[in-house]
Amino acid sequence: MIKTDILIIGAGPTGLFAVFEAGLLQLKCHLIDALPQAGGQCSEIYPKKPIYDIPGYPEVLAGDLVDNLMEQIKPFQPGFTLGERADTIEKLDDGTFIVTTNKGTKHHAPVVAIAGGLGSFEPRKPLLENLEKFEDNGVAYMIKEPEVYRDKKVLIAGGGDSALDWSIFLADVAKEVTLVHRRNEFRGALDSVEKVQQLKNEDKINLITPAEVVALKGESHLEKVTVKDTSTSEERNIDVDNFIPLFGLSPKLGPIGDWGLEIEKNAIKVDNTYDYQTNIPGIYAIGDVNTYPGKLKLILCGFHEATLMCQSAYQRINPDKKYVMKYTTVGGVTGFDGSKKEAPKAVVKAID
């Protein structure tokens, strides 16, 4: 059985940063993730997608962010159970938990932090007659390697951040980028909307709104898409090599939804007045998996939630110790394997 101080379910950016904050407090972490590698969606779905709202980084690729987080937590030597899904949870008489994966691996910890992002997910697909025929033959629902689209004619459909950001990014990669959205207004960041409009004015992006893709055409590979103007019902065919509908993901909590947690709209309700704890003491939920009044599904918000969660977890694990964190520094600390090394640590002031 694997024993740790904080068991983190989900090894995406929020879960990884929680390791760092816990490590400052000399708390050991172990992470479970159904994916075969750490990084969550940033590694599995869009490693080359640029992210613009990480403090200190005007722009950072999702995969590079994960690499940096892994480097940041290296001194704290977290454990990983990858390629396994957290399946069941049991609360023992002493208030600690045993979490068992679908492969039977057992983990024991006094604190469980669910950082599962959107949970298990599937792309939302457009309702098009012959869509499956062109999957992997010109149709894709996520972009892992932008170079695949080098010098290609690409049509992206969607109105959120992913559609906007990839349209901007591929404008310098693809031969031609067309962005189609069923409304004139976008749901993404205003800065991205302005950038797309600027690229349109520079003839680097074809912007078609309000419109939707209504048909796909081609033999063995996609050759054309039919776009319908939703204001006039006029249709036209556009030559393309690739069609990428970015309508978001359909999330599912999976087995975690059966753990007795309070759920609202497929997210876990937490107390955001203090520590993002769930209705079960000792179980926290941080990042996109949780919900509370005013919730924003941003990576930087997940980092903040992870920080406060770790403070609360420390108090739960060490009920007789009280302190106030003052700042962080770098100094010689003892690693979890007993070795001496340079690593970040928390400077705290004890309270009598």
Concise synopsis of the structure shown:
This protein is of the alpha/beta class and 352 residues long.
Structural account:
This is Ferredoxin--NADP reductase. With 352 residues, the chain is of the alpha/beta class. It folds into 2 domains: 2-121 and 249-350, FAD/NAD(P)-binding domain, CATH 3.50.50.60; 125-245, FAD/NAD(P)-binding domain, CATH 3.50.50. The chain has 7 helices and 25 strands. It has helices at 13-24, 41-44, 62-73, 131-134, 161-170, 190-201, 299-317; strands at residues 2-3, 6-9, 29-33, 50-51, 60-61, 79-82, 86-91, 97-101, 106-109, 111-114, 120-123, 153-157, 176-180, 206-208, 211-218, 222-229, 235-239, 242-245, 249-252, 263-264, 267-269, 283-285, 290-291, 323-334, 340-350. The strands form 8 sheets. It has a 5-stranded parallel beta sheet with strand order 6-3-2-10-22, covered by helices on one side. Strand 12, helix 5 and strand 13 form a beta-alpha-beta unit. The protein is elongated and about 70 Å long.
Radius of gyration: 23 Å
How many separate helices?
7
- Assign an overall shape: elongated
Largest sheet: 5 strands, parallel
Residue windows where pLDDT falls under 50 for at least 5 positions: none
The CATH superfamily title of the largest domain: FAD/NAD(P)-binding domain
Structural category is alpha/beta
Tell me the strand percentage band.
Answer: 25-35%
Helix coverage percent: 10-25%
How many domains? The number is 2
Report, as a whole number of angstroms, the end-to-end distance: 37 Å
CATH architecture name of the largest domain: 3-Layer(bba) Sandwich
- What is the highest CATH level, the class of the largest domain? Alpha Beta
CATH topological fold name of the largest domain = FAD/NAD(P)-binding domain
Number of strands: 25
Strand order of the largest sheet: 6-3-2-10-22
Mean pLDDT: 89
Domain FAD/NAD(P)-binding: 5-293
Catalytic activity: 2 reduced [2Fe-2S]-[ferredoxin] + NADP(+) + H(+) = 2 oxidized [2Fe-2S]-[ferredoxin] + NADPH
Family: Belongs to the ferredoxin--NADP reductase type 2 family.
Enzyme class: oxidoreductase
